[in-house]
Amino acid sequence: MKVYIIDDHALFRNGLVSLLESRKISAKSAPSPEQGLNEIPDLQLDVILLDLRMPSMSGIEVLKALKKQGEETPIVMLTTSTEESDLRDCLKHGAQGYLLKDMDPDELVDALEEIKTGNIVVAQDMTYMLAKILRNELTDNEPSFDSLTDREKEVACQIAVGHSNKVIARELGISDGTVKLHVKSILKKLTLSSRVEVAVMVTEKRYCK
């Protein structure tokens, strides 16, 4: 395995190179993001390790720059940060791993092996936070009743009580054709496939008074 490390702390960087080489892993390093960005395109690598906090460029900025260059080597953050926002931002911008600097050496090597095969690996101490982020992402991506226009909400509420298009048209003073267009838009916005699903969602969530 060939690993490249970008970290501005000489003691940690050199220690990590020695650790990896003692495990028969080829390791090169750079003390600055600029040097790393210059050297990496010419190298055949299996994993790139990035420090998150560096003075000239942050790890996320380096991550973005590497992705912009078209770098396909798995990029992993190796950091002391246990902040949820850092984990979320790194994964959002394409990091394939988020590892902590105080992890056991054997765990680090195992993680690098997994990452090399294409897996996404997050430090064990951060898995609860990853689960939280995923839950929030799923919640944020749920279809929202608030995404409907006021008229669409009125139509959805009429659907929920079982009214046909003709009845809805009469109740709201609009044409049957307009009701059909509203129903189509409602299904699309709520990612539903039938009027029944609209009725169930509206009723369960108590959207209509």
From TrEMBL:
GO biological-process terms attached to the record: phosphorelay signal transduction system; regulation of DNA-templated transcription
InterPro entries documented for this protein: CheY-like_superfamily, EvgA-like, NreC/VraR/RcsB-like_REC, Sig_transdc_resp-reg_C-effctor, Sig_transdc_resp-reg_receiver, Tscrpt_reg_LuxR_C
Modified residues (4-aspartylphosphate): D51
Domain Response regulatory, chain residue ranges per copy: 2-116
Keyword terms: DNA-binding, Phosphoprotein
One Pfam family here: GerE
Domain (HTH luxR-type): residue spans on this chain: 141-206
GO MF terms held by the record: DNA binding
PANTHER family recorded: HTH-TYPE TRANSCRIPTIONAL REGULATOR YHJB-RELATED, NARL SUBFAMILY
Protein name: Two-component system, NarL family, nitrate/nitrite response regulator NarL
Species name: endosymbiont of Bathymodiolus septemdierum str. Myojin knoll
